[in-house]
Write a structure and sequence with these properties.
- The protein is α/β, with parallel strands linked by helices.
- The strands form four sheets. It has an eight-stranded antiparallel beta sheet, with helices on one face. The protein has a seven-stranded antiparallel beta sheet with strand order 5-6-7-8-12-13-14. The protein has a five-stranded parallel beta sheet with strand order 17-16-18-19-20, sandwiched between helices.
- A hairpin with a 4-residue loop joins strand 9 (181-184) and strand 10.
- Helix 3 (106-115) crosses helix 4 (126-140) and helix 7 runs antiparallel to helix 14 (430-448).
- The radius of gyration is 25 Å and the shape is globular.
- The N and C termini lie close together (11 Å).
- The model has no long low-confidence stretch (mean pLDDT 94).
- The protein binds fructose -6-phosphate.
- Fructose -6-phosphate (F6R) binds at residues 302-305, 349-351, 354, 357, 402-403, 484, 488, 605.
């Protein structure tokens, strides 16, 4: 989704802005641009449809200079991807603005401004903001006041960075619903949609709160809260090194992140198992008191994180014996669900900034849940800050748009939750589960050795247009996740079904052009799954079965078996995710798609 970066310094900031945009690329975008106030005190601007590299090439030919500047990667919402719609947008020659988010009342404001004589050069909602700001400035003649008056009239969620030509010494930034972080340098200050963009220039950050307005100068940062009161916000040091968001020897971030899963999971577990027990306190200091009153769980998330929730439902109900419901955030937020007493509201999110998940959490806080818990990868995210309890997944920065290590670390976190809630409801095998969890990093290392055979297998998928993924029980969500991974990065249509449902419709699709991928660990439903696979075989389907070595699958030219290390039924969901990720990766690689930034998608979905 859109990315913002800004800088006020004693040096030319063009290169810093372009480098920052490169580091924001992972969020997903379709055009890019930047504006600086130059030595003649003019706003100079460059914009392109397409990649940041194109912008960089243009700037190489026609460099821009300035000590104060803002830049942006745009992910189209209002108006197609084009140079005209790319940010920064300007009003006259005095105001330039970049924006992340959506302005819901933009069409009425646009009409109002057209009547006042403003001419629109784009189809974006953003251009409304910059003209409105120019209009407000006419009255107050004070930039900060004009910004406050402008945002009072905007409905929606947004983050803004603003340049005003006559005042080249500063940038005004606004955070209302979309994330924005200030980076503090020495005699220079920065802002960005996320800290990863600023790691090469600073490790000291201020995370703006909802409604904050920041006035950034090279030597100071002034912050005003939603009521206009001057406030101090905590400076936080980040230990992240900028190399941690580099690709290293891997061809793609996605592949690097798939291979990082053993270490990511070790990090998730570190300090979370003490004396063969999971202490309640890993979820927060008041977690014990909260967990005592929990009678059921409502999980809410989007996309891949939602699939992690679906796996957890099997665990929470079958092992912890706690009723659990799972729903996508974009639905529950508008559904007005019945909330039963003693329900724990759990959000799952890599970014912690997903607009739907955040809105669902805010809605939940008004509707009688016993407590809210965020399982999240980004410590400073809005989701973490706004939840009662938190468990960080510690997967490290995830740059590939397709989520991989965030998912498996969420599963580990959810198993820890199952254990702490379950021991209050009769779960007795805590020690066994913990010892299995501790073996996971090694088992995942072993599973990753399947990369080579799966790369070979992927050749059989490259020319296919459709595919079907099957699983049963807690492997059904893994089938859903395998299908999501394949479709989002290879653009092959992929569907997932609980295998028992095949005969109720999808069997009609089976022919030799429809590869069927089955997840077959050695669990209670294996024999049932095998019968379902027979149904596919009998109709000429081509089967690719990911199975435990001890699972006897019929030998047949139309059945290819990929042997996965032997694991218990519980952790099978985590282990079998790896071959699904590898399959999607290698199919996409052979098809030559833009794996880390697949078309039409964004990493952090900060708009509804
Ligand atoms: C798929 C993917 C998305 C995200 C979804 C939620 O590979 O990455 O489906 O899982 O947009 O994002 P988070 O987890 O950041 O809330």
């Amino acid at each position: 989704m859109c990315g913002i970066i800004g800088a006020v310094a004693q040096r030319n900031v063009e290169a810093i802005l372009v480098a920052g945009l490169k580091r924001l690329e992972y969020r997903g975008y379709d055009s890019a641009g930047l504006a600086l106030i130059d030595a003649q005190e003019e706003i100079v601007r460059a914009r392109v449809e397409g990649k940041v590299d194109l912008l960089a090439a243009q700037l190489k030919q026609h460099p821009l200079h300035g000590h104060t500047g803002i830049a942006h990667t745009r992910w189209a919402t209002h108006g197609a991807p084009s140079e005209k719609n790319a940010h920064p947008h300007m009003s006259g020659s005095d105001f330039a603005l970049v924006h992340n988010g959506i302005i819901e009342n933009y069409s009425e404001l646009r009409e109002e401004l057209i009547k006042l004589g403003y001419v629109f050069n784009s189809q974006t909602d953003t251009e409304v903001i910059v003209h409105l700001l120019a209009e407000q400035y006419k009255g107050s003649k004070d930039l900060l006041t004009a910004v406050k008056q402008t945002i009072e009239r905007l409905h929606g969620a947004f983050a803004l960075a603003i340049l005003y030509r006559p005042e080249p010494q500063h940038i005004i930034a606004v955070r209302k619903g979309s994330p924005l972080v200030i980076g503090l340098g020495i005699e220079e200050n920065f802002l960005a949609s996320d800290q990863l963009a600023l790691l090469p220039v600073t490790q000291e950050f201020i995370y703006l709160e909802e409604g904050d307005i920041a006035d950034l100068h090279a030597d100071k940062v002034l912050i005003y809260d939603a009521h206009g009161k001057s406030v101090e916000r905590k400076i936080q040091h980040s230990d992240l090194q900028h190399q941690s968001v580099e690709r290293g020897a891997y061809r793609h971030f996605m592949l690097k992140e798939i291979f990082e899963q053993p270490i990511a999971i070790s990090n998730t577990l570190e300090g979370r198992i003490i004396n063969s027990q999971v202490p309640d306190e890993i979820f927060g200091v008041h977690a014990s008191k909260t967990f005592e009153k929990i009678k059921q769980v409502q999980i809410v998330a989007c996309g891949t994180s939602y699939h992690a929730g679906l796996v957890a439902r099997y665990w929470l109900e079958s092992m912890a014996r706690i009723p659990c419901r799972v729903e996508v955030a974009s639905e529950i937020r508008y559904r007005n669900p019945v909330v039963q007493a003693g329900t724990l509201f759990v959000t799952l999110s890599q970014s912690g900034e997903t607009a739907d998940t955040l809105a669902a959490l805010r809605e939940a806080k008004k509707t009688g849940y016993a407590a809210t818990l965020a399982i999240c990868n980004v410590p400073q995210s809005s989701l973490v800050r706004e939840s009662d309890l938190v468990l960080l997944t510690r997967a490290g920065p995830e740059i590939g748009v397709a989520s991989t290590k965030a998912f498996t670390t969420q599963l580990v976190a959810l198993l820890l939750l199952t254990i702490v809630l379950g021991r209050r409801h009769g779960l007795t095998n805590e020690k066994v589960l913990l010892s299995e969890l501790q073996q996971l990093p090694r088992l995942l290392e072993e599973t990753l050795t399947l990369a080579k055979p799966i790369e070979k297998l992927a050749e059989q998928f490259v020319l296919k247009n459709n595919s079907l993924f099957l699983g049963r029980g807690a492997q059904y969500p893994i089938a859903l996740e395998g299908a999501l991974k394949l479709k989002e990065i290879s653009y092959i249509h992929a569907e997932a079904y609980p295998a028992g449902e095949l005969k109720h419709g999808p069997l009609a699709l089976i022919d030799e052009d429809m590869p069927v991928i089955a997840i077959a660990p050695n669990d209670d439903l294996l024999e049932k799954l095998k019968s379902n696979l027979q149904e596919v075989r009998a109709r000429g389907g081509k089967l690719f079965v990911f199975a435990d070595a001890i699972v006897a699958i019929e030998k047949h030219p139309d059945i290819q078996i990929i042997t996965v290390p032997s694991v218990s039924a519980v952790i099978a969901s985590i282990v079998y995710t790896i071959p699904m990720q590898l399959l999607a990766y290698y199919v996409a690689y052979l098809k030559g798609t833009d794996i880390d930034k697949p078309r039409n998608l964004a990493k952090s979905v900060t708009v509804e």
